[in-house]
Batch of 3 targets.
Target 1
Amino acid sequence: MVCIAPEWVIRGHVDDHALPTLNFTPAFRSLMRGRGMHDPGEVMSFLAPNLGQLRDPRPMKGMSRACRRIMDAIHAQETIGVFTDYDVDGVCSAALIHRFLTGIGCKPPVVFIPDRINDGYGLNMRGIDELYSQGATLLVTADCGITALEEVRYANTLGMDVIITDHHEVDEKLPEAHAVINPKQTDCLFSGEDLCGAGVVFHLIVALRSLLREQGVENLPNLKDELDIVAMATVADAVALSGLNRILVKEGLSVLNSALRVGFSALVKVAGIKKELISRDLGFILGPRINAAGRISDARKAFDLLITDDAGHAHLLAQELDTLNRKRQIHEQKVLEMALQQLKDHPCPGNVTIVCGRDWHIGVLGIVASRLVSLFSRPALVISIMDGLGTGSGRSMVGIDLHSALAQASGLLNSFGGHKMAVGLSVSEERIPLLLPTLNDIIGSQMNARERTFEVDLRISPFDLTPTLLEELELLAPFGEGNPEPVFLISSMEIVGSKVFDDGQTKLILKHSNRVFHTLRSPVGNGFCEKGKFLDVAFTPVKMRLNGHNYLYLSLKALASSR
């Protein structure tokens, strides 16, 4: 639901004299100043990040010990096993390790990707046994393992050394691994950098490459070429798109648009993309196709797509992923419809949406949760019940730490994990009814300030919305936590038309100063569709290309009756 703002907090206004030496519109320069950038050099560095701004990965906690062990394995020609997750981040992480090791002439690592339905998330005994049976003496986890105390202990009893690379939240006790690389460790020098799993792995292979170069090894892989994989994982995993992640995604998009690897090239073709790729394409078009394999089939197909150099094989795999994605959409729509009907019959008021059903396909729970967040502007949990046990996925919104909320409600849960924007959980069926009131109170404490006020970047006039400004705003992408989409406010916009759709969403036609604006579909609620009514409108401008022409739409964020 679009926020109904009782009080606006306006961070700035359009100032013609803001950062005057920069060749941008006054609105854009004012936006940059409002986001704390008072130096032209700082602005340009933010708009055009480069690899020279990346940090040396070797001081990251656990990195030196991990690199020494992997180097020993390389020199001794040991078999290295990789255990990864089945989502985009996990598949990309494993592909990075595989491509690096084969790129320096090592034999390919043996890779285990668990089955979402039969294995569930995280390091497990079956995978350890399978890697051990293939001769692995060193086990490297990717995008998982940080809470796997028993599993790591079991691997150690088999004589396997374990190196954990992960980015999920850290418990007080760590597994007894040979090395743990996770920037969320409190005493890690990279603490505060919200890297995804592939981002952590990328720093590992950068450190390994540096060691190999110091040892005189020549013809090492150019790791810039791997940033397309890192960008894909970073955008798809909903981590903060600021700091190091902004650099990785910006540079990764440049790689994607300059020299597509055969796997991505095939995926772009079957997806029908015929323009320059942007971060939204990774999150909403390519990412879901990669994810579809692990959601309803075998994630190995996506992994094979990322490591193959055979264009023909890549095309067949991309077609299969595209087919799986269409099947995933059918499952998703079915679960979403049941969830929305459940909410219609039993409304879920308050600060969190929780829905559950029997035998819902667990591969689409996270996607449905994201859809519910978008529809109702609050965190959402979607739970599938089977044999008395609920398996759930949750998604949050900027400013709400869902992982922290689950930690406070952990007494009701069998297990949980993830990070502040995306979580997974297991809960006994009889405890599910207790989750709503408990999480409603916990999340409410985080949302109180948000509900009293609504913050916007700038108050602007309709004449500030120019094609030039829209082009300038594209320089700010990719957007996410740490770098949110800009939100502008125009006061006293008149409703001159509206259309309500079957799903309850509404399109408004607004007018101000003889300019007419169309909004994207959104759930605006009753009382905000009345023709002739005047509204204060907070929105993000969106440029959409239709039939070869660019059109401006307003993506509504908050509304208030004009005073």
Target 2
Amino acid sequence: MKKTISIILLTLLWSGMVYGQQLPGDSLAGDFKCLVNYLEETHPDPYSGFGGKVFFHKAAFEVGQRLKKGAGREEFATIAMAFMSKLEDGHTWISVPRGMAESELRLPFSARATPDGLMAVVVPEARRELLGSKVVSIGGVPIEELVEKVGQLRPVENVFGACHSLSSAIVMQRLMKLLIPGLGERVTVGLENARGEVVELTLDYLDTEAYAKYPTIKQPKWTAVNESEYMNYHFIDKERRAMLFRMSSIQSREQFLYLQQNSMPNMERMLDMFYTQTFKRERPSNLDEAIAAIPSLAETFRAMLEEMRYAGAPYLIIDLRDNRGGYTPIVRATLYQLYGDRYLETDMGVRFYTMASPLYMQKLGTTLEEINEAQGTSFQYGDYTFDEEEADTRSIEEKRRQFVEQIFGGDTSAIADLNGKPVYTPERVFVITNDGTFSAAFHYAFYLRKMGATVVGVPSSQAPNTFMEVTEFTLPYTGLKGSISNSAQVFLPADDPRAKVFYPDIMLSQDDYRKYGFDKYSDLLYLLEYLSCNF
């Protein structure tokens, strides 16, 4: 994304904003220097986004000088995020404190990304005719300019990542003030209606109580879709020809078995987060019981394929919308279940280049010395590991044996008896993505397409050629937490049109969304009609 406003100019815009208690400038500058060191030690390429190493340090110096004047924790985090935005890396970020949530002013309006831009999905009930309209401006600022500004304030990997962030920010006055300095408690949204006319909608940002009572009309949701579980499947048409498999997160029992077996740091914290944020139930106090209660992706997916085989269902639709990722290795068993040996013999063409760093070793719960001793290597911090691109000369029997033996999480029960044969391969496989599809969810969509699946929907906020992995850090003074990528991934040739934005094979137009009443599941309804299924 083109950057036209320098970090130092953006920080001047923030200087008049209230961010809570001011903290000593020297301490903040020290914390920022620590962040800069972490970036240099951990990130595969912290320099190119700035134009080189000299300009990376020039920008860091300017931010450090600004911080020496003092700032609040939220202002510090916002400035640090703007600095890291140059990397265009969605896995490299710092948490921004939210302050007093109960005093947050919210707008009774919301939008989501489509292939054509942002579409209104929540509008005042009195203006229900504007539902589905295209957002063309906010506060008098063209939407294209706001999308560009988002990319200067936080790390995003493509225009759809910026649209995803902007759609989240629109609702919160505090966030929109970063994009539109001087924004008051009233804002005008420009909307293009079905006749191509631009209509202005003027709304007030409301306190929590008023926002909860304000009458709005929301984007409808097709009730046939089961949203009750984070991982579920069911036939979506009356004739039982199309199976829908939905995952809101690429996480399952296999992941936690792996973390437990390898004594990974923060394992229990990640388990607690999964139960609270994704599984949405109380976690059993016993660790083994907590892990056993989580669904196995391989077991669930196999049961689904067996049900499809019994019904002779020709279509499988995998819904990965708003799936922010998790652990990519857990999906490999499902690809084997779908395609058998053909999956094992398919080169995905994907390469990962990882840099050794103290933070990465901390993440793995080991040391560089231990890795060198175990592998017979002589890596030093700052060295890269490069995927071997030599031809795989193993026999299919050996590939199969090693795949089963080394399956992620160690549970082979759902694949051991297949002997290279798929459980069931449908005639057509479809994957639905949107701007909320990210990280491991994007990987899954990419691998499925490599095996012949058709991708439908809105482009992912994840770029195929980008940086990857969550490597956590904590700053010593402010205590703010964040993440830095430790790998570079190359999924496509640099000159491929999809290297930055992975466009789906089928994308709906504004007229298509209108046809289905701007339903949340318009992509799915379109697909079923495309397949001539009775729904």
Target 3
Amino acid sequence: MTETNFRTDLDADGVLSIVWDMPGRSMNVLTEDAIRELASLVERVASDEAVKGAVISSGKPGSFSGGADLTMLEGLARLYATEMAKNGEAAAAKALFDGSRQLSLLYRRIETCGKPWVAAINGVCLGGAFELALACHWRIASNDPSTRVGLPEVKVGLFPGAGGTQRVARLLPPGDALQMLMKGEQIRPDKARGMRLVDEVAPKDEMLAKAKAWIVNGGKAVKPWDEKGFKLPGGPVWSKPGFMTFPPANAIYRRETQDNYPAIRAMLQSVFDGLQLPMDLALTVESRQFAKVLRSPEAAAMIRTLFVSMQELNKGARRPKSVPETKLTKVGVVGAGFMGAGVAYVTAQAGIEVILVDRDQDAADKGKAFAEKLISGQVVKGRATGAQRDALLSKITPTADYGALAGCDLVVEAVFEDPKVKAEVIAKVEAAIGPDAIFASNTSTLPISGLAKASSRPDQFVGIHFFSPVEKMLLVEVIVGEKTGDKALAVALDYVRAIKKTPIVVRDSRGFYANRCVIAYMLEGHLMLSEGVPVAMIENVAKQAGMPVGPLSLNDEVALDLGLKIIDATRAQLGDEAVNPAQEKLLRALVETHGRLGRKNRKGFYDYPETGKKSLWPGLADLQDKKLDPETLDVTELRHRLLVAQALEAARTVEEGVVTDMREADVGAILASASRPIPAAR
């Protein structure tokens, strides 16, 4: 057999070392070729008497494998469509089922081949790769800080369909198993050992010796669930503990997803049904559910957007190819408020020196203190070490001296959303920085071309719009003004990539792309309230439509007075026709009459008590001139209104040339929704 993706070596003890090292890739992935080659190796282990067992490890530094190449699953969806056209639905369904369960059958063959397999895990081991490890008879993980295991398939509209649901649910009590599967989190080695997901944790340079020793010393080649008398960790499904797990799990799923994620529903069904069956039948049930999910439009859209398109954008799909890559070493951030401090934090986290400037030393120090609070929280949670905290903080220099910006490759301005204030900052920054440095404005609504008029070099002026809170939100809009040059765009994209965010490139317009869609969403909620739709119904229908929060709750996060300022600015720029009178009336009543500014002063559409949960303000009913009977309202129509309002605004941005790449439109729509974007106010 020709070894392309795996290298093998049989030692004197009969242990076959299998090193997964795909050529031309920085990380191993499960492709059709890799799966075929692994299947041949499994048969070699099973049939060759000289082989006593196998240890599979990775030849890639810092990673075992990220899992399956999801474009392979896209191919299965195309196979279904082709078979449907040629031979009908039954043949198409069978072809999809057979194709989608090849990995599951291969892993089951590893489990039952009669020879012990050990997975030696260093670095990330996720998705289908961790399902491979779960099929092995022993798992040893390195204690390297980069090592993580997990099954994150739910984040791309799928679930672990190569045996993951069945093995995890036989290793853990069902409540813990469901929580792990539904969250899709990456798990540290020590925690994974405590959960029995790995059997041992050891230094990287000792892993292989320990793995081989386990086989030589009689490592068992039978999984617990294949032995007579195996008992499920949490007891049978139809036991008292089972009744305390599955009905609440279903309720939690519906509460959190509003039944908008068929993959999670199918995963719950797979675990519930599978735990009542022998392993082989359970895997068949899982495969049937997996094939069903693969046919869903939700999975197709999420794979395309959150895997294929997102990977392409993260790798620089929109970066000008003619500009050499910039490795940023020093970045300035002007404005040490909430947004600027967040930008400084993620920049320092990427190992880049940060000069954090504000109007006085005290304000700048507060910005660094915010970063210290964030990283200290990570240390408390065990997600960072004290040394990592100290290293990050050493990268941030707070100052009131603009002269300290000399030598910066890029300066990000994050001051108040006022053109005059920004113009003053632009002048001070450009007086301090070198001729090749790029200036970026973190603005949420103000057009970049207008701000660039205050610049002496508009070709080196670009917009970088972060979403709040910066440390959590993945999406960044890179805004190209009328005179923005390729170098400015390239440096901005290099920076966004360095801080591990996902960029979308948009052309200049008021509100750009994401905020235009968000503002349309909030406007529709305001109009519904003004029409007399019950307030709670507006919020609940929005969640049923798949939005993370209702439009009124989102407006509270943004700040109601900021919305009013945007209305005033829009009128000043575009005239009365550009302002919706019903929305203006509502916001003026809330802000100017009742002093309700949103979450920031604990009074908005909701009341925010010092302790306890927020609740809708009862006074909202008095702001409605009429009140509609909820029994007469079409919930589907209300859902569609909230979605269509955003879709229409997105279509307008495409029509106007604000968005020119459909990959960015899709990725931006999902990440902005997940991000709960908040305009870049100070």
